[in-house]
Structures are given as C-alpha cells and as structure tokens.
Input
Amino acid sequence: MAKRSAPEVNAGSMADIAFLLLIFFLVTTTIETDSGISRKLPQWQPEDVEPPIIKQRNIFTVEVNSNNQLLVEEEEMELSELREAAVKFLDNGAGTGDEACSFCQGAKDPASSVNPQKAIISLMNNRGTEYGTYIAVQNELVAAYNQLRDREAQRMYGTTFKQMEKNYNDAGFNGDKDALKEKIDVIQNMIPQKLSEAEPKS
Amino acid sequence: MSKFKKKKSGDLPAVNTASLPDIVFMLLFFFMVATVMRQNTLMVQNKLPFADQVEKLDKKDLIMYIYAGKPSQRYQAKYGTEARIQLNDKFASVEEVQKFIYAERESKREELIPYLTTALKVDEETNMGLVSDIKQELRKAEALKINYTTVVGDAQQNVD
Output
C-alpha cells in the first residue's frame, strides 16, 4: 500500500483572521496622552487666618462674572487683550532700591507693580461662570508668564524657557541636566507664577 | 523517462507568503500591548475646553481622573440635566470626592503618592460653582497637584 502522508491543514486563512484582529486593535488604540494646564492648589487653611497685607499696586485683579464677561482692574476687557495687559502689569518694574527690577522693560508706571516677584494676579470668578471661559482666562494668564519667561531665557541663555523645560523632561537629552535645572530655577525665581484664586461669589 | 525530472526553469515561482501570518501576528501583538482601553465609561458629556499653554500628562498610572458635566443623553431621564461629578463608573456627590482620593491613594504604592496628580476632565459648559466645590474638596484631601485637561487649540474658541 502506498504510504500516505497526513493531509496538511490549510493555513491560508490564518492571515485573514490575524488581519481582522489587527484592524480591531488598530482602531481601538489611543496612543495620545492627555494634556492640560497644570496648577497647584493652595493648602487648606482654617478660615480665621489673617491674609497678608499686599499693596494694591501689586495686585492685578481679574474678575469674571456669570455672563462670562471680564473685569480687569475695574475695567471691562476682551479676552484677547488680557494677555497683553497681564504682561504689561508684570513687566512694569517701577520698584526702586530693594524692590528694583533689573530686567523689566515695562513703562515703570508708579501705579502698577514694582517687580514680577511681588506682582500677584488675583483671579475671581462667579459660581455661574462657564468652565470654558475660566480655562481661557487661565490660559491667557499662564501665557503671559510664559511670554516673559521665554523673553528672559532668550536674553540670558539664548533659548526659550519652553525649550529648556522640554529638554529637562526629555529622558534622551544628553546635556548637563543639573545645570539646566539651575537655569530653570533662576528664571522661575525671577518671574514666579503668583496666581491667586479667590473663592467664587455666588 | 527519468524519475527525477528537472523543474522547468522558465516559470516564475510564486512568492512565498507563508511568513505573512507571522508578520501580521507581530503587528497584532504590538497593538494589543500598546492599546489602552478606556478605563471609565463616560456617563457625562465631556467636551473639553481649548488651551494652548499645556503640559503633557505622562505616567498614566499616577493620574486620578475626575469627570464632571451634564449627564449624557441616555442618563438624562434618570439623573436630570444638572451638571454632576463622575468618579470611576458612577455619579457621585461633592462629599464623595475626598473618599475617592483616599481610596485611590490606598491603591498606589507609598513612594508614588507624592507624585499623584488629579486630572479634572470637565465639560466646558459646566458652571464654575461645581468646579470650585471639587477644588475645595481636593484641598481638604491634600491632593494639591491638579491638571485641567484640555484639548490643544486656541483658547479664544471657548468664548465664541
């Protein structure tokens, strides 16, 4: 009798099945990571703590009402002008003596902030304010800080602050990370993000 | 005729596709491993606002998600249209935020706890009242690192 080999299983459709699964996982995959505005909340404090006294000229008040309208330093303003106004306030640098600002390029208006280190942006919103508007305002204020930081980083180290932070967080960056961290700290100390949020009014 | 007949040499041999499944399987395994299935089923509308001064949130295991917004269409009959908080897979009240944070901390390794970040995924039409209530609770729970998750884009679009 002739020797018969076992018939081979036809594996031609295996590729089809694998493709099917592949396409399913391709479609369901989301490799993108979330991104957003990072903030740090202040510590929880008992109600009866006296707030520190801050000179009015060093406070930049931004209020948003329940109709999503902006009131900046007691004047109505459009969102598109907010960034410029915030930069102008932070960069004013009217201080003298101990409070002098060596790098400010602002108008040195005596009614405005003395130094970016002293300047505080106070943001107050209403309980009825829309979250989208709130984020837009936050975004503009952070942008104002970033703009100044970028300018100073460009002047002192020839690169932008954003790039420095990106390099610092990049695991593949082959440079001196400690020196970079120091530079970042210098800039952050020069222009600290002092953004205070009051509890919303109802 | 000889038993060992020589093959005709003129014909083009068919391309061997036997290794095709292997290649496809390799890709398949890559995508299976890289896939992150959605952890939570969204029960609220979640149209995130736009912003361009954003930072990336790496390390997904160090993030606690809090969702807020109006209940989705199919839950509206039961829960109404008032904006609500969603923790894990169910609606929650403001008071439950603290418990949620503590429970999340419990589930993480101790050395990672200082690096935990809370991501607020809030619908852009939500009122700030709810958001600041959440923030107050987070402050009480000492979860101070937060991130307002946004879509990258021009912030002006939020207002228009």
Observations:
- Chain B touches chain A through 56 residues (CB under 8 Å).
- The helical segments of chain B are 20-34, 76-79, 96-106, 128-140, 156-159.
- The two ends of chain B are 88 Å apart (CA to CA).
- The longest helix of chain B spans residues 20-34.
